[in-house]
Structure formats: C-alpha cells, structure tokens
Amino acid sequence: MNKTIIFDLDGTLTDSKEGILKSLEFALEAFGYDIPPYETQLLFLGPPIVDSLQQYCGMTIEQAEEVYKKFGERYGTIGKFENQLYPNIIDLLAKVKNEHYTVALATAKPEIYAREILDHFSITPYFDVIVGANHKEGLIHKKEILQKAIDLCGNPLIDDTGRRLVYMVGDRKYDVVSGNELGCISIGVTYGYGTEKELIEANAEYLCEDTDDIVMTLDLEEMLIRR
C-alpha cells in the first residue's frame, strides 16, 4: 500500500524568515504603516500574508491586498532567495523517496514562488506533487491546499486495517489542524516558526526537534503498519 508524506515549506524545509520579514518591512514602509514589533512579525510566518496584515495591522482586506502586492515586488525578485534549507533536509527527502513514499509539498505560499524555491535548492525532483496558493483556483488557506495535494497524490488515506497512510509535516498550527481534520498523521516540527506549545495545543500526534526525529517517527509508524 502506497504511503504519502506531505511537507510544508517555510519553517519545515526552508528557513525563509529573512526574505519574508524584509519584504514585509519594505511593503509597510512604502505605504507609511508602522512596523510591528519583531514578535508580531514572526506571526506572519506561515499563514497567508493578507490574513496576517488584517489580523495584526488592523487593515481592511483592500488595504492588505495593496500592501501584499508591494510585498510581492520585493519578495518575488529578492526575498524568495533570502532563504536556506534546514540541516539534513536533502537526506530526509532522499530517504522517503527511496522508500517509495509519494512525496508532496503543500504550502500557503503562492505556488509559483514555491516551485522557484524548490528549483533554487535543486530539490524539485524529490517531489511527485507540488501545491501552493492559487487565488484563481480558490486555493488560499492550508486546508484546501492540503486537500488538493492529497487528491493529486492519489493514494488512500487508510489501508484495509484502518491504519492511516498519509503524513502531514509542518511547523505551525495551520499544518497540524488541517492535517488532523483531513485524516492525516500530523507531525509537528519544533525547529521552525511555531512553538512547541502551539503544536501541542493543535494536537500534533508527534513532535520532532530535527530531521532525525522525523525519520524515527516514520520508522516507528512503519513498524506499527507491519504488525
């Protein structure tokens, strides 16, 4: 029975904080908005930027979309590459690929940026499915993005014994909650932007401090499946 593993991008595969926050500051300054405290800026890492601008900067949706367009001017040219892979990510991707997982990406980042980032780090060949935000298709929030990724993978959620076969790996509550609601095994990583407390409150089934922990979790689940 084919197994599926779906990864988030920012805070899970790559540390993209520098490019996102610099582009956010660029966009806010362009329109004369105050720059939020650093702790608040960190909350922008994960959910759609337009949502965060409304929630944390008190903008209307029209204002937020205008600022987001300016954000894209910098992020789409410079910011997306102010970014780096977390340690041992390539080894992790190689392992799951070699073990015949269907490997997917599900990110709230626009899909065009996600594909460019994967290409930049030469990791696109590890992925069978890549899904990012696409407003024309109504793909904005994590749950619908994840649902499309699951559908495109084409593998069952459970086997004949009822064991779940799809893993969602991410660093924020949005990843965990969406994964749980869609029947995935949720793996929260604590090396990204979400806190351990956030992931526990979102009911992550596993917490992993690094890629070695992710490997051990997958190996444990494999043992359970074979019983």
Automatic annotation (TrEMBL):
UniProt cross-references to Gene3D superfamilies, sorted A to Z? HAD superfamily/HAD-like, Putative phosphatase, domain 2
Superkingdom, according to UniProt? Bacteria
Q: Which InterPro entries match?
A: HAD-like_hydrolase_sf (IPR050155), HAD-like_sf (IPR036412), HAD_2 (IPR041492), HAD_sf (IPR023214), PGP-like_dom2 (IPR023198)
GO cellular-component terms in the record? cytosol
Its recorded name reads Phosphoglycolate phosphatase
GO MF, any single term = protein tyrosine kinase activity
